[in-house]
Amino acid sequence: MSLQRIVRVSLEHPTSAVCVAGVETLVDIYGSVPEGTEMFEVYGTPGVDIYVSPNMERGRERADTRRWRFDATLEIIVVMNSPSNDLNDSHVQISYHSSHKPLPLAYAVLYLTCVDISLDCDLNCEGRQDRNFVDKRQWVWGPSGYGGILLVNCDRDDPSCGVQDNCDQHVHCLQDLEDMSVMVLRTQGPAALFDDHKLVLHASSYDAKRAQVFHVCGPEDVCEAYRHVLGQDKVSYEVPRLHGDEERFFVEGLSFPDAGFTGLIFFHVTLLDDSNEDFSASPIFTDTVVFRVAPWIMTPSTLPPLEVYVCRVRNNTCFVDAVAELARKAGCKLTICPQAENRNDRWIQDEMELGYIQAPHKTLPVVFDSPRNGELQDFPYKRILGPDFGYVTREPRDRSVSGLDSFGNLEVSPPVVANGKEYPLGRILIGGNLPGSSGRRVTQVVRDFLHAQKVQPPVELFVDWLAVGHVDEFLSFVPAPDGKGFRMLLASPGACFKLFQEKQKCGHGRALLFQGVVDDEQVKTISINQVLSNKDLINYNKFVQSCIDWNREVLKRELGLAECDIIDIPQLFKTERKKATAFFPDLVNMLVLGKHLGIPKPFGPIINGCCCLEEKVRSLLEPLGLHCTFIDDFTPYHMLHGEVHCGTNVRRKPFSFKWWNMVP
């Protein structure tokens, strides 16, 4: 219980006060005391519990057990647990005594009216609305935690509306309410009390910029019944008692957690005494609830696929057909962005990242639009944003972005345990430069956003050695049937040289790379012997291997991985303007659809009728129950420094684990 306020009694006339059920009221009996007072007694009518607290060490005792020596350090505490039926229907009586007088020197009477006021929401994420078992002013993480959850209402449930649902102060369709959280104000007590008392719902100006509230002021099946009462420019609202004992509110988030915003939003309801016309209203009691805005969550490639996205451009018909066939095998939907919309920008992985937000009552997919703003820049907002599909973006104010701000440079690991800490939703992986160097990094506003979500703490890897500079150029994750549940694939020049050396020893040194490439006028074949005798290529790939090894150690440490969790995929790189690009199609830059993998066709050396690179990759991945399909992306993607993963995107099934059950 928390102390409510101090009420002073008077000998001259009875005093009346309002108390709130379950909340302690201090009664001051010392302001008007008859001369000669040495002791006092205090009694209450049924339903009024009275305690005397002699000092902090002794705690409190029931007041009606004995006569008390008059001492100004004593505290008298009154508690009522049930609301009154009528005004002033309970009272406390204090009698003042002297050892020299047989009768009381005087009496003081305090008349009480009890009202029960509670501002409630779904506190424990299990649908239970029980205000007594937790402190509603706190939000606690973990499986035994509690606290309300808000979704940022960032979808567009009414297609005829030109903006996201939370961009104005109206409810445009009833489906919009499904994305909001319910908050309930309950009051019990004499109706006459509210003739000169009022209830005010309020929030700080800081919180009002990050959430807004609608009051149900009519039939719930009519959009116009939902009145915007808090949020943006409104910080307080006098609540009319339209529905008797219970008023319902719908709350929506306006902002995701970000730099300077932890995600916590507080709403308060205050009972004000407005009975004195000569004074401003005075507060009697405040109840508070806290919500946490649900974080945006990424989905790793090991989660089941639901929908595949790909762009159709002027020279990728065969590629789109191959992706469509892979999606069919995996049993997921295919969405093709036509050339009229993509304007020949094929890099749909770089344009957006598909994730979700979740509350106990609703899970909402949300697309994170990258700040790269190529020709695809309108696709996420115009084509993906819609009913039950939200949208968020972050752009630097000066609009200065680099290639690292494309979302091929934004990945997430499967769930891991590292250094004794569990990451049940995995960890975000972004690429940057070496610590202390002045190379390229992801723009600050994107990094701030990712860190603020808390549930997938980012790990920054070293990618500035790459020309494009994306983490998906040297790593990916695939599902595995064992307890770990996945394997991390790393591009490995060392593994490629080892494979080529083995083939050379077996007499296949003349076998050629790049045979069968359609656009063979721009691509010259090269033999294994030529590769292994090219000192510049070998030395450069030693440098590349050192960069990947740096990341390998970071990933092992930050994701809690052992060597047995990592598979080295043969890959070579070449230098362009002192940065690395794939020498042949980058095998780890693959599309993962459950057990079906769409892997860039490497056009490696053909030995005994088979590409030895494809054969090696199959030998590494098929024992995990995976099915490898090699897709020719050479001309439409590889020649432009991208591969299969760069040219596709996937919406996946959310985690079964609920984010609020973790401890960041």
From TrEMBL:
EC no. given is: 3.5.3.15
Top-level taxon of the source organism = Eukaryota
Which GO MF terms are attached to this record? calcium ion binding; identical protein binding; protein-arginine deiminase activity
Q: Does the keyword Hydrolase apply?
A: yes
Q: Which residues form the Protein-arginine deiminase (PAD) N-terminal domain?
A: 1-113
Q: Name one Pfam family in it.
A: PAD_M
The GO cellular component terms are: cytosol; nucleoplasm
- Calcium is among the record's keywords: yes
Print the keywords alphabetically: Calcium, Cytoplasm, Hydrolase
Coarsely, its chief localization is cytoplasm
**Gene3D superfamilies cross-referenced by the UniProt entry:** L-arginine/glycine Amidinotransferase, Chain A, Protein-arginine deiminase, central domain, Protein-arginine deiminase, N-terminal domain
Q: Which compartments does it reside in?
A: Cytoplasm
- The chain positions of domain Protein-arginine deiminase (PAD) central read 115-273
Q: Which reaction equation describes what this protein catalyses?
A: L-arginyl-[protein] + H2O = L-citrullyl-[protein] + NH4(+)
**Which intervals hold domain Protein-arginine deiminase C-terminal?**
284-661
Which residues catalyse the reaction? D350, H470, D472, C646
Q: Which cofactor does it need?
A: Ca(2+)
The record's function comment reads:
Catalyzes the deimination of arginine residues of proteins.
Name the family: Belongs to the protein arginine deiminase family.
For this entry, the protein name equals Protein-arginine deiminase
Species in which this protein is naturally found: Pan paniscus (Pygmy chimpanzee)
